[in-house]
Specification:
heterodimer; A: alpha+beta; three-stranded antiparallel beta sheet; 5 helices; globular; B: mainly alpha; two-stranded parallel ribbon; two-stranded antiparallel sheet; rod-shaped
């Protein structure tokens, strides 16, 4: 019985991570309409209930910048250099489309889940 | 917030460890960003400390994990053989391994039949060693070739590989029910012929290659020698193979479908037939008609007829070897690409 519970927890965590992986981009982009540095973004997301680690977020920010959806610059703040990120014009357009897509998917999933109840 | 000397040294060592694992271009930039994050984290975790100690730095570095792990998050996923090439890689690997193992097995059988082996157990051990080495080096070479294609062909179109991903109707496997159904009449005929064959070869083995004849139906039946000693040497092998074929046909008749076992069984016995025919060609003459010379009143040159018959047998066997070898290759490829249950 104990082993069953352990397996259940493991399977659930694995699937939860898979499910979350797809929406981290949307969550991060949604907070970058205003300028943020990595640590402030992690805190901001955490305060709003979306927990994401630096090991996931920092590489993601770099990837979005390589895709030319974000702009970034190093700035000395509180006598320490920090890298600030913000959505550029293309990033804002993509975010708008992603939000529409997300809302449609939520509706679809909601009706699918209602069918099973 | 200020780091004391030991704390600064520890942090620098950690960042150096991360940098060493990162690609050249972005190394400094990524390390600076990680440093910025760590300093923010230290500030939040120990707000009252006037000076950060090495113990505090150690605490947060332990949470971060090894420099290699942190750096790995920034590297794109690296593959030896990636998802694009993997199906082709597996297909080629299976075919090459089957060919290598088949060829080495044939060479083992040939060596054993020729009688070059003095100790059978040593020969078997050597056989498995050769199979292991052959499979390992073939598998390693294929993997290396695909790894090179993966490395140098990244982002490039590879026509042959892309074709494998496309839908191609003739490449679809047959439905199991249609492909694997066995014909009961055909199998029954095979079994009857197999039994007749076994009875015949057992008989000529017991008569020393002689068969009965009636020169004159009124007289008593006599025996005349047709099969040479060269041929008789192979009779036990012929009987063994016929026995294996007969058992397989019986099995197919009972289960009503071709399974992986019966298909590979067929491939093995056909391979043994090829080897056997090869040896028999080398052992000509297999038959002799000279026995008829003494008893036949007809003026015919049976020596000449015998050599013609042996040539005919050799040609027939050579054609048989080529045909069977082609059939074996087709069966192996089919069995690898679309294995039976």
């Amino acid at each position: 019985m104990g082993m069953m519970n352990e397996k259940h927890t493991k399977d659930f965590e694995k699937l939860k991570q898979e499910m979350r992986r797809g929406v981290i981009v949307l969550a991060a982009m949604s907070q970058l309409k205003q300028e943020q540095y990595g640590y402030s973004l992690i805190k901001s997301l955490k305060e709003k209930g979306f927990d994401v680690g630096q090991d996931t977020l920092y590489p993601l920010l770099r990837r979005l910048e390589q895709q030319e959806l974000l702009d970034s610059e190093w700035r000395v703040d509180d006598s320490r250099p920090r890298r600030y990120y913000i959505l550029n014009k293309t990033g804002k357009e993509i975010l708008r489309d992603l939000k529409t897509e997300w809302r449609e998917q939520v509706e679809t999933i909601r009706s699918l889940l209602n069918e099973t109840e | 917030m200020k780091l004391n000397k030991e704390a600064r040294e520890l942090l620098d060592r950690y960042l150096l460890g991360v940098k060493r694992e990162l690609p050249g271009k972005q190394r400094e930039d990524i390390a600076a960003e990680i440093e910025s994050y760590l300093l923010d984290l230290l500030e939040e975790r120990f707000p009252k400390s006037k000076e950060t100690t090495a113990a505090q730095v150690k605490e947060i570095l332990q949470e971060m994990g090894a420099p290699r792990k942190v750096a790995a998050q920034y590297s794109s996923q690296r593959y030896l053989v990636g998802p694009r090439l993997f199906p082709a890689y597996i297909l080629v690997l299976k075919i090459v391994l089957a060919a290598v193992i088949g060829a080495l097995t044939l060479s083992f059988i040939i060596n054993s039949v020729i009688g070059n082996t003095s100790n059978i157990w040593l020969a078997i051990l050597e056989y498995f060693g050769t199979i292991w080495n052959g499979a390992l080096s073939a598998g390693g070479s294929i993997t290396l070739i695909f790894a090179l294609i993966e490395h140098f062909g990244e982002g490039k179109e590879i026509k042959e590989i892309d074709e494998l991903q496309e839908f191609n109707l003739p490449n679809l496997p047959e439905l199991p029910a249609e492909e694997k159904e066995t014909g009961k009449i055909g199998l029954s005929i095979e079994i009857v012929l197999g039994v007749i064959g076994i009875a015949f070869f057992t008989y000529i083995n017991s008569t020393g290659g002689r068969v009965p004849y009636f020169f004159n139906p009124q007289t008593e039946m006599e025996l005349v020698r047709i099969f040479t000693d060269n041929f008789l040497r192979y009779v036990p092998l012929i009987l063994a193979l016929a026995g294996l074929d007969l058992t397989r046909s019986g099995m197919l008749l009972a289960q009503g479908y071709h399974s992986s076992l019966t298909n590979w069984w067929h491939i093995c016995t056909q391979s043994a037939h090829v080897v056997l025919m090869g040896f028999m060609i080398k052992s000509l003459p297999l038959i002799s008609l000279e026995g008829f010379q003494k008893i036949n009143a007809v003026d015919l040159d049976f020596t000449h007829l015998g050599s013609l018959a042996n040539t005919g047998i050799a040609i027939g066997m050579a054609v048989g070897i080529v045909g069977t070898a082609i059939e074996i290759i087709r069966k192996v490829i089919r069995e690898i690409r679309s294995p039976s249950a």
